């Protein structure tokens, strides 16, 4: 004789078989899949749920801490960054583990949290990007960020950190890091120095043949597309906010393939992010890889010319008729103009000009 546990298990199995047979033979008995779905908007956090932090600009004599929540920097990168910030008049602290080799995710987290808790520190300057700052963000409480609001400066893999700062309601600065004092062009260097001191950007960029004209505004979010894709559906997903919030999306990358670009835009569409985007600023697609065999364009109306062509045609076919600026000097080239993330930005695209201002 079967025991009560075994009998129960066999009874449950028999019930499941009978239920699915009923569903096949009598669709009226089926429970629709949508009944189990929780809309993404249910997870959105309205900005009104907490105060937005408006950080004061940095001043001569303020202390900046050097951290590297992504890849391990070289001693030279740390030294050149410290010296550069000192020439701008700032006091520089070096986090304990920034050059520790090897180091752990916990070491990187400890440096970040130490900088947040240090009352003498006004800003966290990331020495380099690279890989896996998202591992550190996975450990970071958004409530902690709100409790200790400070400037964050960096880009590329630091996009994950920028996303967390945005969720916390704290603005941050998308800019070059140690490269500022290495191979960045002088106008970009000067623009970065001015932004740290509180001078909000007002740029005029050259037009691109595939630009889509229009004038829009919205909260600037984004950065590196590959890193931002990894933030989707995390607790630091910058799109998990009040659905009424409208964005201007910044999108740049290095070494991206055509498939990567297609995947990013498709995912941004599927999760509803693009539906809340008023306009897009595409930075440089540095070292872009066309992958003609995988995504040649033959199934999209004809061969693709470049990454800009892929993006323009994909946005059009998905019905996003919004202003788009292509190939702006933001990203991994020798030009990387700094931007203020988490604040309202205005984008005015005409046939002869791209005007971006706050």
Describe the 3D structure:
By secondary structure, the protein is α/β, with parallel strands linked by helices. The chain has helices at residues 4-25, 75-87, 105-117, 133-139, 142-147, 159-167, 186-196, 225-231, 258-270, 307-317; strands at residues 63-67, 91-94, 121-126, 151-154, 172-174, 202-205, 214-224, 247-254, 277-286, 324-325, 339-341, 344-350, 353-357. It folds into two domains: 63-199, 3-Layer(aba) Sandwich (Rossmann fold), CATH 3.40.50.10740; 203-357, LD-carboxypeptidase A C-terminal domain-like (Glucose Oxidase, domain 1), CATH 3.50.30.60. It is 31% helix and 20% strand. Helix 8 (225-231) runs parallel beside helix 9 and helix 9 packs parallel to helix 10. The radius of gyration is 24 Å and the shape is globular. Residues 1-38 have low confidence and may be disordered.
Average of per-residue pLDDT values: 88
Q: Taking Cα atoms only, what radius of gyration do you get, to the nearest Å?
A: 24 Å
For the record, the CATH class of the largest domain is Alpha Beta
Name of the CATH architecture of the largest domain: 3-Layer(bba) Sandwich
End-to-end separation in angstroms reads 78 Å
So how many helices?
10
Shape: globular
Strand order of the largest sheet: 6-13-12-7-8-9-10
Q: What helical percentage do the residues reach? A: 25-40%
Query: How many beta-strand segments?
Result: 13
What structural category characterises the helix and strand content?
alpha/beta
Please identify which CATH superfamily of the largest domain we are dealing with. LD-carboxypeptidase A C-terminal domain-like
